[in-house]
Amino acid sequence: MKYVEERNRKTLELLDKAKQHLPGFCNHFFVGVAQTTQPLSRLNYAYDLGVFFKFLSAEIGTFIGKKVSEYDVEDLEKIEIMDIELYAEWLTRNNSARGVMRNLSCLRSFFAFYFKKGEIGKNILPNVDLPRLHQKNIIRLEGDEVDKIIDGAKSGTDLTTGQKRFHKKNSFRDTTILTLFLSSGMRVSELVGLNVGDIDLKNSSFRVTRKGGNETVLYMTKELLKTMQEYLADNPASERPLFLNPENGRLGVRAVQNLVKKYAGHAAPLKNISPHKLRSTFGTNLYRATGDIYAVADCLGHQNVNTTKKHYAAITEEVRKNAIEQFESSQKT
């Protein structure tokens, strides 16, 4: 079974367990959104809805003491705007603005579904303000830091004594992983899902299963091709996971996150570098090289180019500045 299929199977098992702690009428919602959402999204919906109903039973007078299993769809019409606003305020105690946004977005989808189906006569959620999110600075590696993180994986010079015990065995694997991130902008879930058979050395390409399940062919840089040729020299089994853990099973997301953090901690100690930041590094460098936001969106697997524009707004400003400088230079000639 492919990685994505196995991951979705496990997620659906967790979803079935989570739904057992929700009101029975919620099953209609999960059936209704099954064709338009991924299993992980539905699992997060289930967790968020569980928190919401428990909040109602603990904090809102109309529902105080009510068991979650006792709620029915008509109860949604009894919920007022103030109740949702109190919920949002309560969420801020233990969540970031993005966490509050995610929870309220879940409720928007939930209420909109039952309103559209005619099971409730009003939908108050559009009248609830969402938190304002501040634009995050893009954290990425610069040229010398990219060299340092690759060199660190190859040499292990800056590692602790404990880390060096495993370095000799894992050095080439880790170097290949970092090179792949920095040369393709892959998501960590996409990287761990790769099998040897997804790599096409003859055509300098590889097949990746994107977020959402679509398969895409990406192309290798010369550096990545050379690294991959060496890495696969003794690993011909096509159905084997590309990257293995010490038990010869598929390397997991958490393990990849930890190895990136380990090497990046020495290459860029003042930056909190994760696989996603390596993705940002690739996206930034590709945009600087091409100036083509649509090419960047396609390579990163963004379905909407506005997502790319949002993440690379700082680079957009840089391109604008360079354009003006080039314009001024042209006027002097």
Give a written overview of the molecule.
58% of the residues lie in helices and 4% in strands. The protein is mostly helical and 333 residues long. The chain has 2 domains: 3-127, no CATH class; 143-291, Intergrase catalytic core (hpI Integrase, Chain A). A 3-stranded antiparallel sheet has the order 1-2-3, with no helix packed on it. A hairpin with a 5-residue loop joins strand 2 (205-209) and strand 3. It is globular. The N and C termini lie far apart (63 Å).
Euclidean distance between termini CA atoms: 63 Å
Global geometry: globular
CATH architecture name of the largest domain? Orthogonal Bundle
Strand content: under 5%
- In round numbers, the mean pLDDT is 89
| Radius of gyration over C-alpha positions, nearest whole angstrom | 24 Å
Number of domains: 2
DSSP, total strands: 3
Q: Helical element count?
A: 14
Q: Sketch the major β-sheet.
A: 3 strands, antiparallel
Would you identify the regions where 5 or more consecutive residues have pLDDT less than 50?
none
- The percentage helix is 55-70%
How would you summarize the topology of this molecule?
Layout: H1 3-19, H2 26-32, H3 39-59, H4 81-91, H5 97-116, H6 143-155, H7 161-184, H8 188-192, E1 199-200, E2 205-209, E3 215-219, H9 222-231, H10 253-267, H11 275-290, H12 293-300, H13 305-311, H14 313-332
Antiparallel strand pairs: 1-2, 2-3
Helix pairs in contact: 1-3, 6-7, 6-10, 7-9, 7-11, 11-12, 12-13
Concise structural overview:
With 333 residues, the chain is mainly α. The protein has 14 helices and three strands. The protein has a three-stranded antiparallel β-sheet with strand order 1-2-3, with no helix packed on it.
